[in-house]
Amino acid sequence: MRLEVVHRTRYRYSSPARDSFNELRLRPRAGHGQELESFLLRVLPPVRLRHYLDLHGNHVSFFDLAEPHLSLEIECRSRVRTAVPEPPDGASFPLARAPECARMESRYVDLPPETWRKALDATAGEDDLWLAALRLSRFVHGALDYCPGSTTVKTLAGEALREGRGVCQDFAHVMIALCRSLGIPALYASGYLYNGPRDLLRGAQASHAWCEVYVPGGGWRGLDPTNDQAVGESYVKLAVGRDYADVAPVQGRYRGTAEQELEVDVDVQRLDD
Fold it and tell me: For the whole model, what pTM was predicted?
């Protein structure tokens, strides 16, 4: 599938801002069934863009804008060719051996005892790691209501699970917390979701988030608990990390007024081959 993504971020300030520094993780990753055909990044006011790869292999563009400005606009256009990922190979991996894998800790994924208890209950009787991860995805999908505006980017996984609501970021954080409480390696993935003409999936036409779990012998495999499905060719992956703090599409700081307006527009369209 060939997809085109246009992502615009606009900041407007009530009085001039200055000394703005920003990091952008907006360039789609290449590899593992995803091919980047083109990528164009534009910033207004014009700035000099610099780039590096972070510790997770994500492409990061960064810039600073010292001059006073009343607005800042960031626009990127990407064309990506995606494919259906190969399923994990037939050899299963025992869930009981999951704790042998390294355990991660991160800012927004806390691991209170009640999370571990829910993970045990959700996977009771399942011995295979991948099948257990599928159960956890189904559990998160049923345990949380999709409620835009009910949480913030700083909401912890345990809080979202107790409240029983959130957005795709919270679904991913809760899924990661459940996996890690059982020793299953899990990462946070950011990107986009092409919804098609039927408008049935949550999180489309916006920045989206899901979870990747590591299956020994099968590699990293994506699961989207927001929609309770495996990640396929309708997904465009931008970045991976321990949680949202590692993969925020746009993050930065500036000096000046605290009064600002933020607009984010995302459009994902399918292209004819």
Answer: 0.92
